[in-house]
Amino acid sequence: MKTASITRRNVNWGNIAISLAAPLVALLVATGLTSALMAISGIDPADAFSTLGSRMSERTAWIDATQRAVPLYISAIAVAIGFKMNLFNIGVEGQYRVAMLTVVAVGTSVELPPVLHVTLCIVAAMAAGALWATIPALLKVYRGVSEVISTIMLNYIATGVLAFLFAEVFAIREEGRLNPKSEELPKSAWMPNLVSENLHNISGFIFVAAALGVAYYVLVWKSRFGFRLRASGTNPTAARTAGIDPKRMVVSAMLLSGAVAGLVGMPQVLGDKHAYSSDLQLGLGFSGIAVALLGRNSPVGIIAAAMTFGFLDSAAPFLDLESIPKEIVVIMQGVLVLTVVVVYEIARRVKERRTQERASRSLDAALAVAS
Amino acid sequence: MTLTASPAPAEQLPPPATGPVGRWPGLPAWQRTVVVVVGALAVMSLVRVISGANGLTSQGTIGAALRLAVPIGMAGLGGIFAERVGIVNIGLEGMMVLGTWFGAYGAYEFGPWWGLLLGVAGGALGGLLHAIATVTFNVDHIISGVAINIVGPGLARFLSVIAYDAESGGSATQSPRRSGEIADITVPGISSGLKSLEDRHWFFVSDVAGVVRGLTTSVSLATIAAAVILVAASFLLWRTRFGLRLRAIGENPYSAESLGVPVLRIKYGGVVLSGMCAGFGGAFLSIVLASIYREGQTGGKGFIGLATMIFGNWRPGGLAAGALLFGYSDGLQLRASSAVPALFLLAAILCALVAAVDVARKRFVAASIVSAAGAMFLIGYLTVDELADSLSYLTPYVVTLVVLATSSQRLRPPAAEGQPYRRGEAH
């Protein structure tokens, strides 16, 4: 009887079922809320969802979704590294913008064979991102400034400084060009596409993103550093007592997050535009926060979250064709994040209570047997 | 038993520091304030005379500073209400965005005062959302705030498409221009009487004239409403039973609970009030500072407000000083961007003062670092004649960072800030 109770305790089917049901419940609630909002605004939710549904059967839709998911995935991993130790790096946005201009500056000033050139650019991007992240890290460690506010201020500062540098130093003015552009990177610094079907591409950076995902998993869950990181995040006091230097952890986590953030703009700069231009896609850092929250900081969960966001982003123009405002996509994304966060919190509480009840039941049973 | 009848918990706490001013024994608070204000004005006057940047203390700059301080100060007040009940509110920015949208919509449809009211309601909606997530469901405060910062602008964009796409002048990113304005008032006599004095550009005297004129010329009634709200909020927080309970919850919710305070209800109240303040700040942006709603209008003012709250040590008085400081850096950049390089000189002088204090206290390492920074600022002042617009636009953000980096050490946030609370789980 004793062994039976132990094996049963090891596999808690009810809790597993709750874990599996949580994302489905969140999806249902989010769908319901968005539908309600659409209905109030005089849009037929059935129209919107059937448009999205019909996109799902198109091959090109998934190519576009994947292409959009790659930078989102990298961005979310950068955010998640911070989240794992309760650091909120809202500055991914600024870090990747700084890295984009740095890479163009470095990449256009040297001549190297193809693979080396791309590698150099990637290293430069990571260094630039990490460097920009050093400022909030040091401010937090030495001056106690909340990283949330300092990274947000640094986002604005990056925007202004980059606009200034681009306009004064890098932009090449040409007659009849609408979007100013910097000098183009030499072909040796281009990242080739993995898939390319009439204007629908998937960048070779998908491999970089995949490698990052694996590295993130190994580093955070399988290494000593990752253990210290999670320990500092879960219980800073206990971690400190165990000899983990919190200041060092803050600085290294922030630099690591910044280095990864530096890569967010690379699919655009090395894979698509091959230059710094005024029509680069911005805001990937902020979307990364949402994707990391949606993916619960898990390397696999973030894939699903990035694909969801990528799919919705690429489907938005098709909603517009059906005269449904494409902005509904942003609402869906936001509502989805909020409901996922709330539903998981409820699921965690229910699981906790079930585990406690179970423990007290088996304790009662054991006491009954003993008496 | 009520909390007022018992020994007030607030009095058992270590005496709160008095904001950024620091502590000089023997001087009452109002005298310290006077000393600081006069000192600051003298330094500014010195910088103005040396650099010749008369925009530093002109009526136009001070008036703009006052106007621009309102949204930042209201966001900061929102921060105080939330954090005093122990809820961190990073979502202020998103709530402000809702305030800008609903404010502009109300002003366009019904008139500017209704707009302000509707903006407050929009902010309250954001606050309610944050309260549901953090108070009822115990979601991490920062995560919920970040989510609200994503949802707020998304909702504003969506509503714009619905409400404004068919209107002329409106689009997915902005509202049509509206007509009605909130009235300005000018104190008769003072404004015109001091003009000649300001125009002499004398040391100190003209600066005082410029500041007084700035505070008495074309002040919007909405600005005065904001000042009244700030005073009313400090009264509410420090002189009423509700305020005492609210602050007690931010320090120790379980103690408050044991004394019979309805913790959850008051937490909801604090967070919704927080959203209302942010909504007022947002509506002020789209009604008084502009005559339309524009996407990205808040430009991080919610976050700057949060920084102001920290600077002001979670108290309305310090908050007001901080809001004026940030409003000033923003106003200078907007109204007299040629005067921005003079701030380098100001920074150099401040560094020299700090270094002198450090030397007097025999902290030589700190003194040398500060002197080095001062030298850099001086070089910056001597070499930079004019800043590009894209750089002078950064003034408020850089000032925020510098102020936080130099002031956030001896501050005391509410003790239970950011911690989850569940009824009956005292430990």
Short description:
The complex is a heterodimer of chains A (371) and B (427). By secondary structure, chain A is mainly alpha-helical.
Description:
The complex is a heterodimer of chains A (371) and B (427). Helices cover 76% and strands 2% of the residues of chain A. Chain A is mostly helical. Chain A has one domain: ABC transporter involved in vitamin B12 uptake, BtuC. Chain A has a two-stranded antiparallel ribbon. In chain A, strand 1 and strand 2 form a beta hairpin. The longest helix of chain A has 43 residues. Chain A starts with a helix and ends with a helix. The N terminus of chain A is likely disordered. The longest helix of chain B has 26 residues. Chain B has 19 helices and 2 strands. The relative contact order of chain B is 0.18. Chain B has a domain of 280 residues: ABC transporter involved in vitamin B12 uptake, BtuC (Orthogonal Bundle), CATH 1.10.3470. Chain B has 427 residues and is mostly helical. Chain B has a two-stranded antiparallel ribbon with strand order 1-2. At the A-B interface, helix 7, helix 13 and helix 15 of A face helix 6, helix 14 and helix 19 of B.
